[in-house]
Write a structure and sequence with these properties.
The structure is a single chain. Helix 7 packs across helix 12 and helix 8 packs across helix 9. The chain is an alpha/beta fold. It has 12 helices and 7 strands. The longest helix is centred in the last third of the chain and has 20 residues. Helix 4 links the parallel strand 3 and strand 4. The strands form 2 sheets. The protein has a 5-stranded mixed sheet with strand order 3-4-5-6-7. The chain has a two-stranded parallel sheet with strand order 1-2.
Length: 258
């Protein structure tokens, strides 16, 4: 996810490679990022924090208790911390500091890797409206952003955070159906993927609801209606809704374990 941000920010001319400081515990990873994007590697996390105004904490949730204490002594007023660590609340992040710094929490998703992500953002009381706007602009470089109250973040995790996996299952099923009915695997996969891509682009147009878009494809007594009827009999809508609810519930459970 950090690489996706680097790619989006530099490609979108929001920053230059020389302005981007990065630290990673894996030297090989730092070398790759430097060679690929021309960014400036930091020898230590604290050096990156000292030299930067906006710091993005792009680590796994379980790594936060090790990563933050290393940089807190080098924090100063005027800096903004943006965290993409899933399940780590603003309150918990603030608890690592003597006094709450300006904090933004972001829940992105993996399509950010192809600059088509969906990210939800929220801020704490110490962060300003300008801080939130800056963070939204940064993540806007890798997709779409929405501003939400933190109470909704578990649902965001279950919907857009986990959502790509649900869609990949549907894609796999579409391709498998094509193969079952005689299409070559590569052709079936290409047709399925392009169909989802195009449908997603159509769905992003706010002028039509999802239902209206569905009706554009569905003729009375036609092939699409026959397929939709089988989906309804199988309870596909309920299955997907249950999946999002289960992922949301698990997100809440994981907060207690991290």
């Amino acid at each position: 996810m950090a690489e996706a941000l680097i790619k989006g920010l530099i490609g979108g001319k929001m920053t230059t490679p020389g302005q981007c400081r990065v630290f990673d515990v894996l030297p090989g990873r730092l070398g790759y990022l430097q060679q690929t994007y021309g960014i400036q590697p930091g020898r230590e996390a604290r050096s990156v924090v000292k030299e930067s105004r906006i710091i993005i904490l792009a680590v796994k949730p379980q790594q936060v208790p090790q990563a933050l204490p290393e940089v807190v002594p080098h924090w100063s007023s005027g800096k903004l911390l943006i965290s993409i660590a899933a399940g780590i609340t603003l309150e918990r992040l603030a608890g690592f500091f003597p006094s709450p710094p300006a904090l933004i929490r972001v829940m992105p998703n993996t399509p950010a890797l192809v600059l088509a992500g969906a990210s939800a953002l929220c801020k704490n009381a110490a962060a300003t409206k300008k801080d939130l706007e800056e963070a939204a602009a940064l993540f806007g470089a890798v997709g779409e952003t929405v501003l939400l109250d933190e109470t909704h973040f578990d649902t965001v995790t279950g919907l857009s955070g986990s959502g790509p996996a649900y869609l990949f299952v549907i894609l796999e099923a579409l391709a498998d159906a094509g193969v079952k009915l005689g299409l070559p695997r590569n052709i079936a996969a290409k047709l399925a993927a392009q169909t989802m891509l195009g449908s997603g682009l159509m769905a992003c147009n706010p002028e039509r609801t999802f239902g209206q878009l569905k009706e554009m494809v569905t003729s009375p007594g036609g092939t699409t209606m026959a397929g939709l009827y089988e989906m309804e009999k199988a309870g596909l809508r309920g299955i997907i809704m249950d999946a999002v609810e289960a992922a949301t519930r698990r997100s809440k459970e994981l907060q207690k374990l991290v």
